[in-house]
Amino acid sequence: MTGVTLDRDQCLALDAADPLRKFKDEFVLPEGVIYLVGNSLGAPPRRAAERLRRTVEDEWGRHLVGGWNHAGWYEQPLAAGDRIAPLIGAGPGQVVVGNSTSIAVFQAVAAALKLRPERRVIVSDTRNFPTDHYMVQGLASLLGGYELRDLSEGFDGAAVVLLSEVDYRTGARQDVPAVTAEAHAAGALIVWDLCHSVGAMEVDVSGADFAVGCTYKYLNAGPGAPAFLYVHPRHQAAAENVLSGWYGHAEPFAFETGYRPAEGVRRFAVSTPHVLSFAALEAALDVWERVPMAQVRAKSMALGELFVELVGDRLELASPADPAARGSQVSLRHPDGYPVMRALIDRGVHGDFRAPDVLRFGFAPLYIGYADVYDAATTLLDVLDKELWRDDRYTTRLAVT
Amino acid sequence: MTGVTLDRDQCLALDAADPLRKFKDEFVLPEGVIYLVGNSLGAPPRRAAERLRRTVEDEWGRHLVGGWNHAGWYEQPLAAGDRIAPLIGAGPGQVVVGNSTSIAVFQAVAAALKLRPERRVIVSDTRNFPTDHYMVQGLASLLGGYELRDLSEGFDGAAVVLLSEVDYRTGARQDVPAVTAEAHAAGALIVWDLCHSVGAMEVDVSGADFAVGCTYKYLNAGPGAPAFLYVHPRHQAAAENVLSGWYGHAEPFAFETGYRPAEGVRRFAVSTPHVLSFAALEAALDVWERVPMAQVRAKSMALGELFVELVGDRLELASPADPAARGSQVSLRHPDGYPVMRALIDRGVHGDFRAPDVLRFGFAPLYIGYADVYDAATTLLDVLDKELWRDDRYTTRLAVT
């Protein structure tokens, strides 16, 4: 971007030349919708429905309980982990999939605390998604004797630091290698939450101790899809999974009374995988294995910058102005953000709202194009200029904002 | 049953008169398979595939992230809980669904320990499925200072007792109200694992403190389907969810930094529900709401008893001889149980094997009939009499037994 804002024809020309354009056909979106909420729930992969039908009818229906052996269900947590690994700079045998991000946060932080038994401080960051705090608060309350400290107070004396690569609210991006090095220099371990970066950019947690993330945002694996947990190889022999369920046992089918952890990252598997939810994840990963992530990041920055330029100074930017310092979302502030967003959605432009005043727009480069961004921005300006949001229909709060 | 074993025609006559016979059409089973593993993974409900298609295409595909409001996803953990409640003797607002049985065990036992802070003993039972032990071992290791004690040592001084209504290996059934009263008399709280009883019989945990269970066995909700957690109303105000994720927060969408538990059982929801896995659960519960459970139990006992009579003294019975003292499974012992079971499966009779020597046969009364049991038993006797299991094909161990 040059600072000279493009017109709609120029956007269409960029779409025509976009090397990622072919991926749009891999996803299903309703007619007339510009979907800028892929940072919250990704669009359905075109093959997800068929993949689920196959799992229900051909796998469960035909193999029944034999699906654990004959349909690959038993291996899902590690097999999916190995497919996610390249997306976060990890290698095979370093990522396990299952459960939820909240559970993975609990596992990672608890394991880190056991690796730093002489320290009693947990550092979190108000920019983390709230569930990260909540899980750490629950863990600290369970253990007793730990101090929860905000990132603003620094890393000194910290056993573990829990940070997010991309802020869910503003899209602000942290420098993972640099912050990891700072945490390590202070003697702390670090857990990265990748929920808002994985699938949106090249992620590299290979220097970090643990990482967690969800698969239903940019990765498009469906509502409530399983989460992932990365454990650095240097910790795999010593790290303990306090949620020591049978799926992480060295020999689950020996049915022993005593827990013996499996070798490697498998010990962080807790329980029987949610096979049907894994099916949609597999359909999504079939797409991701063909995606050049450098192109995703380049397009993501270009889309965000186009949006910012088109909106101009009409709304305050809650995100960093430098696209390299953002994830794949742009957040704007408006004191009546809730009805503004409802009015916008009513006109086919889907973003979301985060209290108290943030409008979020996510740009998933696999299915969002330049002309989409152009149309989204002009619709937003129209809603603002004509005050279309001043309508009682738009003020009633829904359960989920 | 009278002790006079039925012939096949008599079994067919019983099937023709069976009031539950109509439910067989609600499930899909492959031609030529007698499926006696419904105690491990239930058969697919006929409408599960369509229900999943609807969730992917009509809900996720049409509403996108709006599915949280417009497709009922947000309410799934409590809505499904209210539908499971009648199956376990609970009322509305007492059951929450999500995660896995292992996670639910951790939540329930941790909550019970916090309610009995003056006690330091956790009682478990070698008849529990191993993951129950493992989760308690992980919890105790995390907390420090707790003693794990076997049920054989009694309830004295116990903070919490973790028992299973039906033993996964032998099918032996415990008397829930009587054992609950004993635990309470000793000042302990009790957590019941209902994995092997829910959907197989009338369950009543209304006197217990907590209960957990899975939905993929007799309830037929699919591989790795979400688990449930029951919390007695008398504990709901004080019980803490140590896995305090955002879904159990009083106002998840206020995005507060501090955790404030929701009122009631909702606080035990941890994280974003696995929506696709819930879809199959909902298809299964559509069947269960029409099932008369007293008829299920009566038929279940009759099927088990028929099987035991047909097998006679050919194999040692690992289950209690009294059908009222069993769940809906019959377990037999054979020193070469593994190849015997493989040979049986090869002949269309599906049971499973549990080390070291147990053959398990589950009788799910909604889709198993008297003639099925007759054919299963005669095939088993044939495999034994002709030593058909002495074949190298049957000794190779699969990953999942």
Automatic annotation (TrEMBL), chains A, B:
Its EC number is 3.7.1.3. The modification N6-(pyridoxal phosphate)lysine is found at K217. It catalyses: L-kynurenine + H2O = anthranilate + L-alanine + H(+); 3-hydroxy-L-kynurenine + H2O = 3-hydroxyanthranilate + L-alanine + H(+). The keyword Hydrolase applies. Coiled coil: none annotated. It is an enzyme of class 3 (hydrolase). Pyridoxal 5'-phosphate binds at T101, S102, F129, P130, T131, D132, D193, H196, Y216, W246, T272. It comes from the Bacteria. GO terms for biological process: anthranilate metabolic process; L-kynurenine catabolic process; L-tryptophan catabolic process to kynurenine; NAD+ biosynthetic process; quinolinate biosynthetic process. Keywords: Hydrolase, Pyridine nucleotide biosynthesis, Pyridoxal phosphate. The keyword Hydrolase applies. InterPro entries: Kynureninase, PyrdxlP-dep_Trfase, PyrdxlP-dep_Trfase_major, PyrdxlP-dep_Trfase_small. Its cofactor is pyridoxal 5'-phosphate. Catalyzes the cleavage of L-kynurenine (L-Kyn) and L-3-hydroxykynurenine (L-3OHKyn) into anthranilic acid (AA) and 3-hydroxyanthranilic acid (3-OHAA), respectively. Homodimer. Belongs to the kynureninase family. This is Kynureninase. The gene is kynU.
